[in-house]
Amino acid sequence: VSAASFPCKLAAAFLSLGVLSPLSCGKPLDRGAPDIEVRNVILVSIDTLRADHLGCYGYERNTSPFIDGLASRGAVFLNAFSSSSWTVPAHATMLTGLDPLVHGALRYPHAMQLPTAYSTLAEILSAQGFRTAAFTGGGYVSPAFGLTQGFEVFSTRGRHFEANLPDALQWVRSHRKERFFLFLHGYNVHKPYKPPPPYDTLFSDGYNGGYDTEDFQPDRPRPSAEDLRFVISQYDGEIRYVDDQLRYFFAQLEVTGALADTVVIVTSDHGDEFYEHGGVDHIHTLYDELLRVPLVVAGPGIRATRFNGQVGLIDLVPTVLGLVRVDHKEPVQGSDLSPFLLNGSDSLAHDVYSVTGFSDYPYELLSIRTPQWKLILWELEGMREAKLDERQPRELYTYKFRTDRWENFAELFLVSQDRAERQDLADTYGQVRSTLARRLAARIEQATELAKKAGEERAVPGPEEIGALKALGYL
Ligand SMILES: [Zn+2]
To answer: What pTM, to 2 d.p., does this model score?
Structure first.
């Protein structure tokens, strides 16, 4: 099977003719019946996809009819947040259930590898007899960063989903009779936004201003309001393109019968900025345009529900293990949402902790988000130490809790009312700021304990991976 099985023209035909109706992901089963067995898991990570640009999250454009169809039959977590605002730490959390402060795959652009000391979802399931495969867009989701652990197949034929989905389809066909865990990832929605026709004009409202989305970069002049609207139309066009690719892929899978006992999870590692807080891109802040990600779960036994409580990517590993009924003895920090998904029992909504780090900039950020408040701390001191030498022992990368210093660089938002994070209340609500900083400190202490497991284990990417990152526009 080649990439030619997923031509743009074909997808365009589906788009224009509307011949593909939302497919049924799994047979209709008794909702919440305790004896329903989820045999397989397909985890789809659409890199850089903001939750608020999907129809099932209230977006006004029809960017995601396929994902919306999944959402209407399954569970939509309306307030799901990433543990970081860039690719490696977020995916490492997605696949381990651990904070970036624990797994340590955090620094940009010289990312540390995910240590082998921690069990990935693929490793846990593989040990239980699952067949495991990942078809990814490469770049930061590649062997150099340790995300391959536990996958018997880890393949990258190109950055975009359409380059890898044919192989994924073939792989499922070959392993249909066995239990499997399939991880899919692609960079279509990542900058530069260049959707193929007809997706480039789908949402552009006849724009002909000539702005090149290649120029949508932090170091380029800010586009006019009209040009920015065009940029967003191209981002949205990419989303619709991926959505159609996934519709086609899952339609093919349904023919094999594989979906009847398979749970499908659609999510992302982080969002992207459109000048909400003065900048573009991701990585360098922890505002919600970067941290709020889609989380849709559908499949046999999964209740159709929309959940407002706050959850995180950190919950994916324990939730998947709960759904497939696999015990795991090692500690994970996330919560098992499967009782909620299957039976409607209370969901373990919780605070979400996030972090982003740099090698080249003089600061790093941590945040704690409760349903009501969000505190972002800009930490300077630890960065100066870590900047000394990338080859220093792991301890130098460990965050040091210094309340006195952090509180000088705090932002506090009442996110329950100020979802756009416009009004910084750090000076007005000093007590809240201190309370949240203490909770963040406790989390960091816990992370420091769990991080000891990896010891000195670490690695830096090699020359080929650096080349791949250049191709993605990172370096
Ligand atoms: Zn990413």
So the answer is: 0.86
